[in-house]
Specification:
Shape: rod-shaped
Strand order of the largest sheet: 1-2-3
Number of domains: 1
Strand content: 15-25%
């Protein structure tokens, strides 16, 4: 009779150790999946913001001040170039990308800014509500585009 009780006790211990192991591993697994989800969203947000910065630089590059260019032979943008770059960024990122500046370097237009992506799981587990990354876009200035290619 003692031989019959031994396998049942072994099965009970095996079941209990499985439950304990599950209770230890499950939260760690959930944490890893949550962090992977949030970091994946950050990577996707940065990629979208990069596209927005590049497109914003292209659109700002269409706003060359042709009078200044004709007088000084230097590329200068009209004042609304920064607003156009921000509008493009808002359309593509839903307001997550903020344009900090639009600059001209020789014949290149630079749009610099930062994207801020919400991280709900990192906030819940580690207290990090959002991740902010710098982004810069570059495009070549379009001379005379607004005047029909003249």
């Amino acid at each position: 009779m003692k031989d019959n009780l031994q396998p049942a006790a072994c099965d009970r211990e095996s079941g209990q150790s499985f439950i304990v192991m599950l209770l230890v591993i499950l939260p760690v697994l959930l944490l890893v999946l949550a962090v992977a989800y949030d970091l994946g969203n950050v990577a996707a947000g940065v990629a979208i913001a990069q596209n927005a910065a590049d497109l914003g630089a292209q659109e700002a590059g269409k706003l060359v001040d042709v009078d200044y260019l004709a007088a000084w032979q230097e590329v200068e943008l009209r004042p609304e170039a920064a607003l156009v770059a921000q509008r493009v960024a808002d359309d593509l990122t839903g307001g997550a990308f903020r344009v900090d500046g639009v600059y001209v370097q020789e014949n290149l237009i630079l749009v610099e800014g930062r994207v801020s992506v919400r991280t709900p799981f990192l906030d819940a587990f580690l207290g990090i509500p959002r991740v902010t990354r710098p982004v810069a876009g570059v495009a070549e200035a379009s001379h005379g585009t607004e005047m029909g290619g003249e």
